[in-house]
Amino acid sequence: MSDTDAGPTHSLAEARERDADDSLRGYRDHFSVPDGERYMDGNSLGLAPDTALATLDRVVDEWRALAIRGWEAADPDWFHYGEHLGDLLAPLVGARESEVVVANSTTVNIHTLIGTFLDTLPGTPAGPDPAADPPAVLVNDLDFPTDHYAIRAQFRQRGIDPDEQLVAVESRDGRTIDEGDIEAVLRERDDVGIVFMPSVLYRSGQLLDVDRITAAAHEHGALAGFDCAHSVGAVDHALGDAGDDDEGADFAVWCSYKYLNAGPGATAGLYVNERHHGTTPALAGWWGNDKSTQFEMRHTYDQADTAGAWQIGTVPMLSSAPIEGATELVREAGIDAVREKSLALTDYLIDLVDDRLGDDFSVGTPREHDRRGGHVAIEHPEGYRVSEALRDRGGVVDFRPPNVVRVCPAPLYTRFEDVWHVVETIREIDETGAYRDYDPRGAGVT
């Protein structure tokens, strides 16, 4: 790699100076960073922190020593563990402890929450007026696919045509969603009962205005829900008091294996505003029962009066324990400081793309801080082959069709020096034409 200056500020030496001044630099030591790699894929899977491995080991030891007694005798006890983790996560999403629980998977949580709130609306079989016209759910055409799969399935289960009632806001540029277009659809259609949007678009990294969307939905008389999979742990949220009406978003879901660094397949999280506690979950299960009566084994559901009601099956302890240790680092660093470093890293990445890469490269992520999540979409006509060449040279990124190389400098373990080297490697791949040695995209994980 070259130390040659790209300008008055953009040099490897300057990147190292930034690292020396970074107040969060010590957190990198907690993570297992693969040797010889510049890891920039934390928006898909975060690296393993020693604190997560420690809490996993603790639970394994409790299993070994306590066996069945771990449900009550472990510390913290396993029986209330989903709620315990919810208490730890609540400050990271700006919610009350009773509004957050760790449970299920992200897709399952979308199923149960969309189903739950559809059942409160006129025009659904369980709603207050089943004979009314069916409600619509407003999404967008850049959503992660699982969101649409789950919503369509919930419509079908209620005898509602998803082709008619799943309404997608169209993107103007194929990269971003304009909140004004969400508001325009709400003005045009009086049947929208739920607005369900991502906090951050998975491809471009655009950060949507959760407060504005929540306020627009509530003004329309609709519920506001969010898929926060690409933001929790990297963006400071205020779900509990979002929106001009100060009521907060109605519900949200997220995963724990991206910026929360809790490991592959870690248990997901959900938020339900306290004003909806007591609403019957669409997918009821025994773990959502009130804990004081759960082992009375009644055949009638006695749901918890918190977000814990949306738990379905037994808490998967070995998939949940790493969340406790992993979130310890985020809470210790402070979500505001994490967000500040994330923005500094992505600012630096965008600047280097502008200054160091050729005209075939462009940035598809909004540049404004209040419109950007934690990753940057670098666009190139041969994005897939560029990403493959970069991986073989130690730069771990991922690709999303049609032309996006997603680069994520996760703030707790990524250095400015790492960002410099990744962009330099991309520049060399482009200038030498090395990407042409790779086949066009095939099947498999990208």
TrEMBL record:
GO molecular function, one term: kynureninase activity
GO annotation terms (biological process): pyridine nucleotide biosynthetic process
Biased composition (Basic and acidic residues): 13-27
Annotated region (Disordered), positions in chain: 1-27
Top-level taxon: Archaea
Reaction equation(s) it catalyzes: 3-hydroxy-L-kynurenine + H2O = 3-hydroxyanthranilate + L-alanine + H(+); L-kynurenine + H2O = anthranilate + L-alanine + H(+)
The keyword Lipid metabolism is assigned to this record: no
Cofactor dependence: pyridoxal 5'-phosphate
The enzyme's E.C. designation: 3.7.1.3
Keywords: Hydrolase, Pyridine nucleotide biosynthesis, Pyridoxal phosphate
Gene3D superfamilies listed in its UniProt record: Aspartate Aminotransferase, domain 1, Type I PLP-dependent aspartate aminotransferase-like (Major domain)
Metabolic or biological pathway, per its Swiss-Prot or TrEMBL entry: Amino-acid degradation; L-kynurenine degradation; L-alanine and anthranilate from L-kynurenine: step 1/1; Cofactor biosynthesis; NAD(+) biosynthesis; quinolinate from L-kynurenine: step 2/3
UniProt function note: Catalyzes the cleavage of L-kynurenine (L-Kyn) and L-3-hydroxykynurenine (L-3OHKyn) into anthranilic acid (AA) and 3-hydroxyanthranilic acid (3-OHAA), respectively.
Subunit structure: Homodimer.
Membership in a protein family: Belongs to the kynureninase family.
Protein name in the entry: Kynureninase
Origin organism lineage: Archaea, Methanobacteriati, Methanobacteriota, Stenosarchaea group, Halobacteria
Gene coding for it: kynU
